[in-house]
Design brief:
Strand order of the largest sheet: 3-4-2-1-5-6
Largest sheet: 6 strands, parallel
Number of helices: 12
Shape: globular
Structural class: alpha/beta
Strand content: 5-15%
Oligomer: single chain
Number of strands: 6
Helix content: 40-55%
Number of domains: 2
Low-confidence stretches: none
Mean pLDDT: 86
Amino acid sequence: MAARAGASAAAGVPTAWDMIWEFKQQLYVSQRRVSPKIVADLANPAVQRELQAFIDGLDKFPVAGAPDEYAALFEAVYPNEGDRRTYIESKLRGAKPSYGHIALATLMKGGRARLAWMINFDPLFADACAKVYDGTGYLTTVALDVPALGREVLNEERWPAEIKLHGDFRSRRLKNTNDELRQQDASLRDLLVSACARSGLIVAGYSGRDDSIMDALEMALALPTPFPSGLFWLHRGRISPSCELRSF
């Protein structure tokens, strides 16, 4: 069993961190009524300081780096669900599976992994499986529209499978705002907890900043036999682990 998030960044899909700066940029430009060219270079520390000072001055958003910063800014810039879906779809256009996606699909084909819990919205892992398995009929994908399918997958051991905890970008139930992220879908949460009692878990490319998922993992730790094959949390080491992960 594996949980993946970071592979999509290598595939050219913007990370939540990238999107956060874009949201700040859009709020700055729209509310100050200035040219986007003034704050076009989001990698420039001076531009970041200017944007952050503006956001801090509004006094209505979480502090920089807070777990709910992404969701609060996303909701402020795109309050409509359809607009959020369109935004994400535009970011995924043209993206191809990364080495990480292909590697995980290869592990599944070799029987080294059976189930992937996905934090991202994109279809890149499914694309990778289609390439590795030479067809699209092998992987079962569970999204928020059909949580009952997840229970069937586990009970019937219908491998390989992926479960998208935050929804598919084409799904009507895309979870990416504070209210939506605050309470993880009950069926998928229960499914994650029960799965953690049956097998081990490897977490890759995920910071642990989502309370709904971290709460589910905490619940799993309280089970009589959590993660019977072990829990492995991979970290690149370039930056310190999040506070949520260190406390976990």
